[in-house]
Amino acid sequence: MAESYQPGDIEPISGSYVHVEVEGVDHRIYFEENGPEDGIPLLCQHTAGNNCQEWRHLLTDEEITEEFRVIAHDLPYHGKSVPPTTQEWWTEDYTMTAEKFTETLVNLADALELEDPIYMGSSMGGNIALELADWYPERFRALIGLECGAYSPGFYIDWLDHPEVNTTEVNAYACWGLMAPQSPEQTRRETMYLYEQGATGVFKGDLYYYSVDHDYRDKLDQVNADECPLYIANGEYDYLTTPEDGRQTAEGIGEGATAIEFAEIGHFPMSEHPELFNAYIREVLAAVTGDREDALPDVLEPDDVGIELHQRGPAREKTAE
């Protein structure tokens, strides 16, 4: 890893709470940030059932935080964003929907007074980039959907919130298989550890949006990527939303949508292999800001960004043309 700390060092990340209204209810949302106050805002959304700690390595990337004000938040009911104190939230199941998700993100950006921000999210946070481009294209400078697809069925499962199932452990090990086997074990284990911290029912509730409410198969022409550029970046080892899913989604959207495959990485790129991900995302951010002279390639490889892998993964079978 690039970070190197000594006893007594204090990391340059600061944490705060901001009050955000969602569906008429006040929520106390926790967020962490690093970077210049006048830097380009980069709003980072965690995956289903997780929290903003997934982005901790991006938050301490000196090159990125020199130009960007990186902000990573916990959605309500996640991490340090506790349920609203004005509601009897325990009387009903937590369920995330596309409307609630987008309203949370846009109202959070408004509450923080972010001017022309870049949005970046992964998994369910990647999928929601399509709704943001459809419903709120004027609010963002660009959208980056990591592990993004038009449709992700099959994961809203009853036993993900069942008294006879250790859902904390099950959720973590389900995510283990989505990471590239050559990603560093320490960071893969940390990703699992983060998944073991979620409240009961939250992961399942997020997956309602991911697998039920989100379906753009017949609506890709509604995505306004010509007004707000959309970058879809899927990992080679992600079998939920494959690089091919990303390419098909971008092709269905058309002008303004760009698909990139991130080689040698899986479904949780920012936390499973932070060094490689940070190098990849610098290239995408350079394309957003216009600092990159050439178009992004169809596939970004570790060699393209100066990262030497000590262990290469097994070859992935490619879909026949």
UniProtKB/TrEMBL annotation:
Keyword Transferase: no
One Pfam assignment: Abhydrolase_1
Disordered: annotated segments: 296-321
Keyword Hydrolase in record: yes
GO MF annotation terms: hydrolase activity
Domain AB hydrolase-1: 41-146
Comp. bias regions, Basic and acidic residues: 307-321
Coiled coil location: none
Domain of life: Archaea
Keywords: Hydrolase
Record's protein name: Alpha/beta hydrolase
